[in-house]
Each structure stands twice: as C-alpha cells, then as structure tokens.
Fold this protein.
Amino acid sequence: GESVGLHLPTLSVQEGDNSIINCAYSNSASDYFIWYKQESGKGPQFIIDIRSNMDKRQGQRVTVLLNKTVKHLSLQIAATQPGVSAVYFCAETGGGSNYKLTFGKGTLLTVNP
Amino acid sequence: DTAVSQTPKYLVTQMGNDKSIKCEQNLGHDTMYWYKQDSKKFLKIMFSYNNKELIINETVPNRFSPKSPDKAHLNLHINSLELGDSAVYFCASSLSNQPQHFGDGTRLSIL
C-alpha cells in the first residue's frame, strides 16, 4: 500500500553543524506534510508543515523542502544543538482527507558535543 | 495547562483483562485521534473522531472500542488484552486542516 519512509534510521552530527533528515513518500495524492520531533518518553511535537503548493518553508532554525516530482521531503536544522536530539518523523496526508496522517519510520538524530 | 492529557501514563496488566485509557484536550479542537506506536517507534493511526462522529477506523481488532462522550474527550477501551497489544498509545487532537497535537502517551504492558 501507500507508505512514507525515511532514508536513514540514524543520524549523528556534531554540535553546531547543520542536519538534514530525508523522507520519501509514495502517495502522489499527498498534499500536506508535517515534521514531528519525539523526545524520549514524550509524544510527537509539531515542528513545521508544508502544503503541496509550496516547495520550501522556513521556521525558526528549520527549513522544510518539498520535491513533488520525486516525492521527497527533507528537514534541515541549522546549527544543531544538543537539545534537538530526538526521533524525527515525517508524516503526510491528503487525497481528500486531512485527518489520516501516515507517518514515516522515524530518524534518530544524535547531536555530539 | 496541558493541551492533550492521557491517563494513565503507565498501564501494566494481565493478558485477558479489559482496560481503558482516557484522553482529554483543552484546545477547543473538533477532531481527536488514537495512534499506536510499536517497539520500533512506528506510529499508526487507529481511530479518529470529528465532532463525536467516527471518521477513521483502521484495521483494528474489534476488541478496541473508542468512545467520545464530547468533543474534548476520546477514550479507548480494550477487551481481552493480548500480548501483542503491548505498545505506547497516543491520543491527539486537531482542528480541520491543522497539525495534530499529541499527548505524552500511555505505555501499555501485557504480562
């Protein structure tokens, strides 16, 4: 069936470096994409979203890029700090339903001091 | 001031028992959800209610029964618990076309 997947299950970066987390999706009807961060023992926390009529959106120290041609989504975190170590999920919905979020597998981001 | 709150946070019980998990949101959202997260961190939607009406019911055993007494509450009752039900269950809420906000989860362990 349709799925959302991540290229890398783990990502280790040095403090201060930029991080890029990638996500591929397969549902061509997807029109709304969200990145979530999940810390240990917590629920997913919203980071940033993007709709299919855009290819780039910037937030506070984060940027999401959407390439609909190849069905690829990425999250860029600038000057990564230890506090952002967590599991990052991409999620998508669309095709007429904004309620049914399909989550990717998740990437564990570890920031080394 | 917790936005989406679930109780209990931890639930340890014997196989075959019946248990309930409660969820409440104070965000004024009209849609609430239940997700299951397995040991590999994979999150999958189970149910969704919009204005107290069931709108999403994924392939979930009928031992799982959601109940929404009002728009701010969505409870999950599980009958005849099985080993495979061990997971973290997340409640979430949203307004239409807006991101979902998640609770901190209920960790269910079946002995």
About this structure: Chain B has a mean pLDDT of 93. The two ends of chain B are 34 Å apart (CA to CA). The longest strand of chain B covers residues 43-50.
